[in-house]
Amino acid sequence: MNALDYFNARLEATISPMDYLRSKQIESEKYFLIDVRNGPTHVRSLTIEDANIIPEQELPERISEIPKDKEIIVYCWDVWCNTAAKVAKFLLEQGYKVKELTGGIAAWQQMNFPVSKSNNISDNCGC
């Protein structure tokens, strides 16, 4: 793979927090954002505003909650976390159109974008 192919593939598979926020403001119904983070409840209490919380370990039994007619955006903790990439791969194999939010919730918070407290968190941390 040459550099151009690499960057084209990377841009096709990811979306930056700024690009996602801008695109969602233009076409709010186009996207379905999923917080796929695993971990203890107390560390997952903040989530990106309007995100659907479906931890990676719950995904197979909750896949029916994910619409096939929207572009799915998945995120996890940070650039060092590969949970969102694993979920994206799984959803792509199921026929979904998926992108990973680059930098996860850490990048989102760093940019001071809207977050909210989540009341819909399962206690099964998947640790």
UniProtKB/TrEMBL annotation:
Q: Tell me which domain of life the UniProt entry assigns to the organism this sequence originates from.
A: Bacteria
Provenance organism: Bacillus changyiensis
Q: Where does the Rhodanese domain lie?
A: 27-117
Gene3D superfamilies given in the database record: Rhodanese-like domain (3.40.250.10)
**Entries under InterPro entries matching the protein:** GlpE_sulfurtransferase (IPR050229), Rhodanese-like_dom (IPR001763), Rhodanese-like_dom_sf (IPR036873)
> What is the protein's given name?
Rhodanese-like domain-containing protein
